[in-house]
Amino acid sequence: MDVELIDGSSVFMWAFSQGAGRPSVPGPVLRIKQGQSVTLSVENLSSSSHSVQILGLPGASFGPIEPGKTGSVTFTAGLPGTYFYVDPDRAPLNRLLGLHGALVVEPAAQPAGGPITPYAASQTTSGVRALFSALRISVKMNSLTGGI
After folding, report:
1. Residue 85: closest CA among 41, 22, 140, 148
2. pLDDT digits (tens, 9 = 90+) for 91-133
3. What are the C-alpha distances in Å from 80 to residues 76, 117, 132, 144?
4. Residue 128 has what pLDDT?
5. What is the pTM of this model?
6. Looking at residue 125, what is its pLDDT?
7. 3-state DSSP assignment of residue 133
8. What span, in angstroms and rounded, lies between the C-alpha atoms of 130 and 27?
9. Distance between CA atoms of 81 and 85, rounded to whole angstroms?
């Protein structure tokens, strides 16, 4: 798909879509509940093989998915938090071309008096801390807001 940049020019990108939805860069935000059994299926409509990895969730990776084929994985959503799903093949090229998105694991039950966020500040994942570091955002900001 072609994506229009801020200057009006376009660049070719690969993209994920959800169901019959329009492809997007980044891919759609996937929301699941802690403890939920999830089956994630990806149909590869491109001419090269791809894989899927959810950073920080053990057992939630699969591939390679050959062109025209579908790959899937079933896992149980663990610790609440925000995770990144990416295509780890030919890193970082596939990520730069748009094959990335977010998966949010929401708490099974919001603790009484807890923050109104997907998860508490004490439960940030290493992926979120790495993103904050890469963007040069202080993790202290997280504790000031009561969570991310």
Report:
1. 41
2. 888 888 899 999 999 888 876 666 555 555 555 667 666 665 6
3. 11, 10, 18, 19
4. 64
5. 0.72
6. 66
7. helix
8. 19
9. 13
